[in-house]
Amino acid sequence: MAIFWVSVLAVAILLYVLLDGFDLGVGILYGLTRDDTRRSNMMRAVSPVWDGNETWLIVSGVILWGAFPVVYATLFSALYLPVLFMLAGLILRGVAFEFRGKAAHSRALWDGAFFGGSLVAAFMQGIMVGALVEGLPFSAGAYTGGAFGWLSPFSVLCGVTLSFGYALLGACWLIRKCQGELQQDAYRLISRSSLGLALLLVLIFAFSLAEQLRVMTRWLERPSLFIFPTVGVVAAVLLARSVRRRNDRMPLLMAALGFAAAFGAFVVTFWPYMVPFSITIAQAAAPQSSLSFMFWGEGLFVLPLMLAYTAISYRVFRGKSDATWEQHE
Fold first, then answer.
1. What are phi and psi of 309, to 5 degrees?
2. pLDDT digits (tens, 9 = 90+) for 218-261
């Protein structure tokens, strides 16, 4: 049961990163244009699915709370402030979705809220990933790092990197959903965000070597892990090829493959730890009776329904967005 639930958790987190990642990325790119019509069409490209995408973040939290309460308590204690900032950003952009189209004199305020909320949420998620990779301070299973133990140059670098990664996903989504000048702008943004992401990944690798992070030891001990960056490089080459050929569908698929490879590397590198080098899956798992009880409810019914709902939503809203759409309608 513990392996089942940690597998479900991994799938839920990956789905969140991919699905909410592209609409956070659209929100980040939103701040790079001043044209009101283009901004409206960018919102149109994500409006049918953005709130459903965030559901997977809730699923991840519920699984942690029910199946791995030790990790839930530990991580939320260690990452209390970045979690609060992330949630504030997500709330702010959600409010902006509803208010922007109806605002007569304060549209600029809600434009800033949509962009700022997206950027803060993405940045804080990257900071949390960076803090986990670098290693949070623990003693006897208890967090000892204080309110800002998660904050370091490495975690900030990871926050910036994930923001660029989400921007890349957002540009790929705009290519798939939009037409005309907005789509051509998205093609150009892919090149810029890809270059920035590549440079930042090199910096992360160099920082890891210079600081002799424990994660690098694991990579040297397990050469098979290099299959994941190999897949990432192949995805990047195919992404560049699809952009040159102006293929509307392939960029998003290749960007998603690159993210999946990075996530797979993260999971396999730290296995069997849930909190790297501090708490294992076995130590974190709830009693067998609790895991089995969750299986008959959430595992057997709720999660399949959510997967079906997600698939149906994307099926219904497939195809290009209507460029003539206005948000207040």
1. -60, -45
2. 887 788 888 998 999 999 999 999 999 888 889 999 999 999 99
Provide the CATH topology of domain 6-316. Answer: Formate dehydrogenase/DMSO reductase fold (1.20.1630)
Tokens standing for residue 113: 């809220």
3-state SS class at 1: coil
Q: 134 and 155 in contact (C-beta within 8 Å)? A: yes
pLDDT on residue 322 = 58
Phi/psi for 126 (5° steps) reads -65, -40
R_g over Cα of the chain:
20
Tell me the per-residue pLDDT of 56-69, one tens digit each, with 9 for 90 and over: 999 999 999 999 99
2 burial (CB, 10 Å; 0-12 / 13-18 / 19+) is middle
Q: 73-103, pLDDT tens digit by residue?
A: 888 888 999 999 999 999 999 898 888 878 7
pTM (whole model) above 0.85: yes
Domain segments of the chain as ranges:
6-316
Tell me which range, 13-22, 50-59, 138-147, 301-310, is most confidently predicted by mean pLDDT: 13-22
Distance, CA of 29 to CA of 245 (rounded, Å):
23
What backbone phi and psi angles, to 5 degrees, belong to 164?
Answer: -65, -40
Burial of 178 per CB tally in 10 Å (0-12, 13-18, 19+): buried
For the chain, helix (H) and strand (E) counts, in that order, are 14, 4
- Measure the CA–CA gap between 160 and 123, rounded to whole angstroms: 6
Contact 130, 158 (CB under 8 A): yes
